[in-house]
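Wait, mind explaining this?

_____
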Amino acid sequence: MPPPPSRTLPAALRDLFTPAGPPVPLLGQAERPFVRRLPYLVALALVALFLPVTATILPTQYGVQSDLALVLAVVQSAPLLIAVRRPLLAWAIAFPADVVGALVMSSDFGGPAANVWPWPAPQIIGLLVLMLLVGLRERPRTLAAVWVLVSAAGWALTSAQPGRSNGSWLVVVILGGLLMALGGALRRSSTDRRALAEQETISEAERARRTLLEERTRIARELHDVVAHHMSVITVQADSAPYRIPDLPPAAAEEFGTIAATARESLAEMRRLLGVLRSEDAGEGGGEKAPQPGVGRIGQLVEATVRAGQPVELTLGQELASAPLPQAVDLSAYRIVQEALANVVRHAPGALARVSVTADDEGLTVLVVNDPADGPHTPLETSGTGHGLVGMRERVRLVGGTLDTGPLPGGGFRVAARLPFVPTHLENPAA
């Protein structure tokens, strides 16, 4: 059931003449201070021009009493200063003053400009300026209401005294309508541009977040094999302990059985977790079947890159062959080198890349540096997906290491990763 008309009409009128937004100054978003002050300077210049002209021509050309003419000149001109922030309010002040001015103009006063009625020339220009500013700020229904009121007032005044006007009021109706339409079009265009910019910002943030989540999911799927291998070893050792250790007490054998059962349960939970992390395009068989790569396969990776036409120099420390690396560190080092070389191929094709992997007692150091390309070259990609550096950071964070990336002073790019064998946050559990 619709509300009573007595309640609907006032609410509709309030909505119709309610400003569409906050009182933001015209050009208030401009970077240069002069541009931000320019609308105030223009408004001040118009007031300085219209106020004395109106106060002069109303008594001399239209027979208005001098004091009343001065009051009307102030009320009709001063709202232009308000219009910089609140054009609808400025119009709501100036337009009734223009109507009052038309009503008090003497019909038998024969000044040279008496036929320019009901709006004298300063009021015509002032109304056109206000209608343009209203069009730049307000909603289409508000613009329609303003145009209807201006048109109705001009028609009613000229109809009440036919033959007095030379049709100049139609200038406000026609040209004012066109100016409001132009202002409305500019407002919609500006609003669409702002909305598009905001959407692009949101999309970029969502893209970065999605990239990070995809990298974390991919790393989790890869580490599943590493952790699953250790859990399988624990299960086998616990199950075989009663057969490998002679005279094992029954309590210890029962404890080993509990450990084996817990390990098998953990493996089952990990497989279910992997099913949640698996991408939609993954096969029903689970994750990848091939063994996870490590530092031992970096040589093959470099050879494949060289065969593709990218010069690469590889340096592997002799100490890498003396002892096996932790699997998480081993896998992370390979993936970092893989991503770094892929970035060189994409962004600096033909540039020499130097890969160095060394180890000490505390961890592994991975360094990939590419020189600037000789001569002009065309990158295969001008803007990447962001997966490469994001993946490197996540892998380094996973093992508690550090990553340093960035351009070199003379050109080229550097990727340096430090992968500790024991993360610092695991060395001191109490910290």
The first strand starts at residue 312 and ends at 316.
